Amino acid sequence: MTADTCEEAGSREKATFAFPFLDLSHQFESIQDELESSVLRVLRSQRFILGHEVEAFEAEIAAWNSSRAAIACASGSDAVLLALMALDVAPGDEVITTPFTFVATGTAITRLGATPVFADIEPGAFNLDPTQVESAITRRTRAIIPVHLFGCPADLAPIIAIAEANSIPVIEDAAQAIGAKYRGRQIGTIGQIGCFSFYPTKNLGCAGDGGLVVTNDEQLTERLRILHVHGSRTRYSYDVIGINSRLDALQAAILRVKLPHLDDWTRARRRNADQYSRLFSKYSLDSHVRLPKAPDYAHHVYNQFTIRTSDRDRLRAYLRDSGIPTEIYYPFPLHLEPAFSYLGKKPGDYPEAERAPREVLSLPIYPGLSIEHQMQVVEAIARFYGK
């Protein structure tokens, strides 16, 4: 992945960088033989849809994250959609979630004719603020979707307590946070359903789009398995209205190779985050830049290393001119995006979710990032602040 390649709807500006924002080549080279062998195995089998590779991957990842069942699907976006479908979310229903997230969280709700109801975020980890959730509940609330943004778990205990008190299921959007833990438990396995993405930039990425839903509920397991294959249990017999959302065998084979390496890659990301903290401290940048800090309950996996600063736009321009790549996730909260204008929300409705897009800046954090490149990043930031 080149320096000017960015995730989904990110910036398309071109610049010459000293190194990439995300470089997957190191990861590929370390397991190239295994990957090529797995792809060749599928090509020789001529079994491209579902089958052994997908079933084996589902079993392996369910064992890895201690979930009762894992159902692979076509994308992380579809994972959220399938979770909502499994809970019978329908037109007229409401689903509470954060406005500071990737658009797929919100559009999955709207595709079923339901209404996204936003609650503000807390400023530390950018996740759904539990104190804002209860006041957003109405008699039409059908689900709550906390998002584990940038790899940091949301504070699930108070959210789930509120949900249980109101008999509302919780869907964990863990698209960016595979391997993260909340009070020692794997995220995605704590609510009724967990949703993951295998987009190539994720901590566990395939060679295209891919997703996963996990659950510990037997009835939801059966419903999810039916829904993602056109609503069918047996060929040409359809029990419910479903969708076509299958992870293909090639992607499953690739993910089977990568999964055993995920814990090592996560440790590398966490080491890089610790190294950034030491470097920022060395240059006494605390008064200028706020670093991501995992709450006590969270095991952060750093899909992104996102700092905050009131000088964000000037700093980013300086870093670009210095050959340092950065990204902004996300430039606007969902309630101020044109696609959600029909909700009638306005500036000021969710102050923290509006402040964050003006201040956030993501720095390179991928496992193969060298200490030399991290030093270049922080030294450039130090120069900007005259350190």
Furnish the topology, listing elements before pairings.
Layout: H1 25-30, H2 32-45, H3 52-65, E1 69-73, H4 76-86, E2 94-97, H5 103-110, E3 115-118, H6 130-133, E4 141-145, H7 156-165, E5 171-173, E6 181-182, E7 185-186, E8 193-197, E9 211-215, H8 218-227, E10 232-234, E11 237-238, H9 249-258, H10 262-282, E12 298-299, E13 305-308, H11 312-321, H12 351-359, E14 360-363, H13 371-384
Parallel strand pairs: 2-3, 2-4, 5-8
Antiparallel strand pairs: 1-9, 6-7, 6-12, 8-9, 10-11, 13-14
List keywords for this structure.
387 residues, alpha/beta, Aspartate Aminotransferase, domain 2, Aspartate Aminotransferase, domain 1, 2 domains, four-stranded mixed beta sheet, three-stranded parallel beta sheet, disordered N terminus
Could you characterize the architecture of this molecule?
There is one protein chain. This protein has 2 domains: 29-260, Type I PLP-dependent aspartate aminotransferase-like (Major domain) (Aspartate Aminotransferase, domain 2, 3-Layer(aba) Sandwich); 262-384, Aspartate Aminotransferase, domain 1 (Alpha-Beta Complex), CATH 3.90.1150.10. Helix 10 (262-282) runs parallel beside helix 13. The model is unreliable at 1-12 (pLDDT under 50). The protein has a 4-stranded mixed beta sheet with strand order 1-9-8-5. Strands 3-2-4 form a 3-stranded parallel beta sheet, with helices on one face. It is α/β, with parallel strands linked by helices. The relative contact order is 0.16. Strand 6 (181-182) and strand 7 form a beta hairpin. The protein has helices at residues 25-30, 32-45, 52-65, 76-86, 103-110, 130-133, 156-165, 218-227, 249-258, 262-282, 312-321, 351-359, 371-384; strands at 69-73, 94-97, 115-118, 141-145, 171-173, 181-182, 185-186, 193-197, 211-215, 232-234, 237-238, 298-299, 305-308, 360-363. The longest helix is centred in the C-terminal third of the chain and has 21 residues, at 262-282. The two termini are 32 Å apart. The protein contains 13 helices and 14 strands.
